[in-house]
Amino acid sequence: MQTQFFPSRTMSIYMGRMFLVRSFAVLAALVLVLQALDLLGESGKILAQPGNGNAELWTYVSLRVPQIIQRFLPFSVLLGTLITLATLNQNSEVIAMKSSGLSAHQVLAPLILTSIIVAAITFVFNDRIVTRATSTLDRWQAVDYAPLPPDRALQANIWVRDGNNLIHAGQVRGRGAATRLSDVTVYDRENDALREIVKAPTAVYTGTAWRLDNATRFDVPTGVNRPAGTVTIGKDIRPDQFTLSSVDPDGLSFVALNSAIEDLDVAGRPTKSLKANLWHKIAGPMSSILMPLLGAVAAFGLARSGRLFLRAVIGMALGFAYFVADNFGLAMGNLGAYPPFLAAWGPFLLFLLIGETVLIRTEE
């Protein structure tokens, strides 16, 4: 038995390179096929907007590809693991490594180390690229693929209720007392009947209420539209009701989402589902580390026994069972049925124990 945890440097680089090449080859094939199918279904909506053409189609592809990579990278790592280990087993390389004194964990060590690197890269990719692409694509789809303003640091199409009245802000910028509203419409209702509509290009928070400048007032019963000058509304409306009315965890980075959760906690609003998504931003990329462990059954056992295919199927079943449990846990966390930490980390810890149990009982 070797005392060194990893195989030789040459063997470790050889296995790590095999694992990476096969995983990213599977990912590239999945992205190519899925993006082509997705573009076929969405191109009609994009081109239906006047002025849109090939440039907008490529813009959509550039925003959609990061989302597809985020979703299917763990599947690719699982399939890459199974292909790598099955190939090593088929060529009797695993038998050679075990006959040299390596344990099952030592055989898997290069793949686990490589998957840790993949998990770290995945976290940075999701946090820096996928969140921005998701936020931009959601805003673009909300306006039916019409041109977007250059300002990315804003929210669009926000509704807030003020007693019987409804307030709509076309765009929201800033945070706290510095919050600014654009394209503001106030629907003044009385006894569930619309009495008047007040519109203003901008609104600012004065500390106690909202000041609308250059407003116009449309009287519904008479049908008369007249200038209203400066109008004060929403004395009971806080800025966070506009800025935090629709927090999309998929469109926010880890730091930005954590900041939004802190603001919501201060405002006394529920945050359990957002906390589950916050934890999952770490637990999701960590799923790559599980794949060599769950797919390890394909590495061991004699290939000539005729059970290599069955072992690969078992490894695939374990991997897909993890993805089902992970999605179920996150859904329960969003509903508030599970605590946030359990919703995000429960499936990972459960299948880590399952993978270790299978490996130890069958190979160690």
Give a written overview of the molecule.
The chain is an alpha+beta fold and 364 residues long. A hairpin with a 2-residue loop joins strand 3 (180-190) and strand 4. It is built from 9 helices and 6 strands. The chain folds into 2 domains: 9-145 and 273-363, no CATH class; 164-235, no CATH class. It has a 6-stranded antiparallel sheet with strand order 1-2-3-4-5-6. Its main location: membrane. Pfam families: LptF_LptG. The chain crosses the membrane at residues 72-88, 108-125, 282-301, 308-325, 337-360.
Strand and helix layout:
Blueprint: H1 9-48, H2 54-90, H3 93-99, H4 104-142, E1 154-162, E2 165-173, E3 180-190, E4 193-205, E5 210-219, E6 224-233, H5 240-243, H6 254-266, H7 272-294, H8 308-335, H9 340-363
Antiparallel strand pairs: 1-2, 2-3, 3-4, 4-5, 5-6
Helix pairs in contact: 1-2, 1-4, 2-4, 2-7, 2-8, 4-7, 6-7, 7-8, 7-9, 8-9
Which descriptor suits the 3D outline?
A: elongated
Query: Strand order within the widest sheet?
Result: 1-2-3-4-5-6
Largest sheet: 6 strands, antiparallel
Mean pLDDT: 85
How many strands appear in the DSSP assignment? Answer: 6
Residue ranges: pLDDT <50 for 5 or more in a row? none
Class by helix and strand content?
Answer: alpha+beta
> Helicity level, as a percent range?
55-70%
InterPro entries: Gal_Oxase/kelch_b-propeller (IPR011043), LptG (IPR030923), LptG/LptF_permease (IPR005495)
Main location: membrane
Organism: Sphingomonas colocasiae
Pfam family, one: LptF_LptG
